[in-house]
Specification:
Layout (H helix, E strand, L loop, with lengths): L4 E3 L4 E4 L5 E3 L9 H13 L13 H5 L22 E7 L4 E6 L4 E6 L10 E2 L5 H6 L1
Antiparallel strand pairs: 1-2, 2-3, 3-7, 4-5, 5-6
Length: 136
């Protein structure tokens, strides 16, 4: 069985199941949702890993990383991604309410975008399910 996540050696990880490329590490510290947008803009301005099309992932993309059971660190997240537990999503719900995915509790949650700090992990590419492609 092939390894699902491939460390590209440039600060990124390729998910062979979805064909998305993820930032391996997170932003240096937990930040608000508006700051998360600025952080991704900075990654693009600096051409992180030689690319300038980084973005915040949406809920669906973040949920593809959710494991069916906890790892040794009590997170529903592959250890290749470290021990941060909650990540901002690009998705919003109403005025000043942003979504985040929590890999400790295993779900999607909403909170005021300026009143809580979460981690940020950028993504690039278009999500495709390898299993769906094989069936087509």
């Amino acid at each position: 069985m092939a390894t699902r996540f491939i460390d590209n050696g440039d600060g990124t990880v390729t998910d062979r199941e979805t064909n998305l490329v993820w930032q391996k590490d997170t932003a240096p510290e937990r930040i608000t949702w508006p700051q998360a947008q600025e952080y991704v803009e900075q990654l693009n301005a600096e051409a992180f890993a030689g690319q300038s099309d980084w973005r915040l992932p949406n809920n669906e993309e973040l949920l593809t990383l959710m494991l069916p059971k906890e790892n040794r660190k009590r997170l529903y997240l592959d250890p290749i991604f470290g021990v941060h537990r909650s990540f901002w999503s690009a998705d919003t719900r109403g005025h000043h309410v942003a979504c985040y995915v929590d890999y400790f509790y295993g779900g999607v949650y909403r909170f005021q975008e300026n009143y809580v700090d979460h981690s940020v992990r950028a993504v690039r590419g278009q999500m495709t399910k390898v299993a769906e492609e094989a069936a087509a």
